[in-house]
Amino acid sequence: MIHRRLSICVLLLLALIVLPAGSSVDAAAGGPTQMLASSTPQSGVVRAIMFWMEGCGHCHKVMTEVLPPLQQQYGDRLDIKLIEISDPQAADLLDRAAAAMGFKPGEYGVPFLIIGDHVLMGSLQIPAELPGLIETYVARGGVDYPNIPGLEKLAQQSAPTGQAPANGFALAWAVMAILISALLYAVIGGLWAFGRGRILPGRSDRIAWLVPLLSVAGLLISFYLSYVETTATKAVCGPVGDCNAVQASPYARLFGVLPVGVLGVVGYVAIVVIWVWGRLRDDIVAIYAPLSVLAMTLFGVVFSIYLTYLELKVIHAICIWCLASAVIMAALLVLSTGPALESVSESA
User: Fold this and answer.
1) Does one domain contain both 143 and 175?
2) Higher-confidence residue: 231 or 14?
3) What band does 299 get if pLDDT is binned at 50, 70 and 90?
4) What CATH number does residue 123 fall under?
5) CA dihedral angle for residue 172, residue 176, residue 181, residue 183, rounded to 10 degrees
6) How far apart are CA 85 and CA 107, in angstroms?
7) Same-domain status, 309 and 326
8) N- to C-terminal Cα separation, the chain
9) Given the DSSP bridges, would you call strands 118-121 and 112-115 parallel, antiparallel or unpaired?
């Protein structure tokens, strides 16, 4: 009964997370470039460009707290183009701009601002150094945009007019709470079972079959994320969060090599294979199958806690698909705890 109620709650939350992702985040008409001021050539104008990503907290801090007062102060003498990294074309332009300024892959990130021959990055360096550089270049009679092939074409595209997606941080914190609760359920359940010699219920076939069903759902999500990560394709994120910002971050690859989505594919396939083996066979592998599934889902939940923490505190962007996979893994851990403890009790 406990498992059934927990499973129903998890499935309802999962539906709330996944269904909005079917909506396209590209409600905006036009391209990724936003203008802070007119780009009409003028003498004495200081021109700069800044690359940013939706869902990047540091970017939005610079865009809402740093740039507007400067624009108001200098008026037509300051012309800054904001280029959103929302598609492969803009991402390629950032890579070429960084390379032209002497940066190697992995040495730069957003917000990435170029003014004259200076590069400023982050929500600390930009407000600290940009005002002084603007004043310097104004005194020199202005400075033009950097000569980067493709910049002019991208800058001519219309600015986005649609409403930006919600950042999804509240939802991510809710998922974090679910992950921690599932982890505590498994740990406390195990201690309670071994301490009192009693086990958690977990042999209902109707509940047990949720394991392969949820695993297949998680597998589909991981396949999609693997495709996005390995082909640099723009993901469909829905109205919550910015999964493209997450997938473009260095944390989308484990040790900088293995896409996290591919790791998810391997994990979900292993869970399904071991679970089916335990149901259909009667050998030594089948005996330890429930415990193996518990170990894999336990690792999956811990890893999901780590990834969700990165989204909240490091990347400052939320991936709706990642949250959905995290909820699935939490449900799998809850469902696998009882059978695993039961198998240990039977083999003792």
Assistant:
1) no
2) 231
3) very high
4) 3.40.30.10
5) 140
6) 17
7) yes
8) 26
9) antiparallel
Which residue's structure tokens are 């811990």?
A: 302
Task: Identify whether 199 is part of a domain.
Answer: yes
Angle of CA points 169, 326, 337, to nearest 5°: 135
Q: In angstroms, rounded to a whole number, what is the distance separating the alpha carbons of residues 1 and 199?
A: 14
The model's pLDDT over 87-134, given as tens digits with 9 standing for 90+, comes to: 777 888 888 888 888 888 878 888 999 999 999 999 899 999 999 999
pLDDT digits (tens, 9 = 90+) for 232-265: 777 887 777 777 778 777 788 888 788 899 999 9
Look up residue 232 and give its two tokens. Answer: 């640099």
Q: Pull the structure tokens for residue 80.
A: 């800054």
Tell me the C-alpha to C-alpha distance, in Å, between residue 165 and each of 27, 65, 84, 168, 238. Answer: 9, 20, 14, 8, 8
> In 3D, which of 87, 21, 86 has the Cα closest to residue 224?
21
Q: Indicate the pTM of the whole model.
A: 0.58
Same domain, 216 and 333: yes
pLDDT, mean over the chain:
79
Structure tokens belonging to residue 318? 């939320």
The token duo for 218 is 């998680």
Residues 266 and 193 in one domain: yes
* H or E stretch at 82: strand 78-84
Cα separation values, 329 from 165, 237, 325, 332, Å = 26, 20, 6, 5
Q: Indicate if 104 and 131 belong to the same structural domain.
A: yes
92 contacts 151 by C-beta, under 8 angstroms: no
Domain boundary among 120, 155, 190: 155
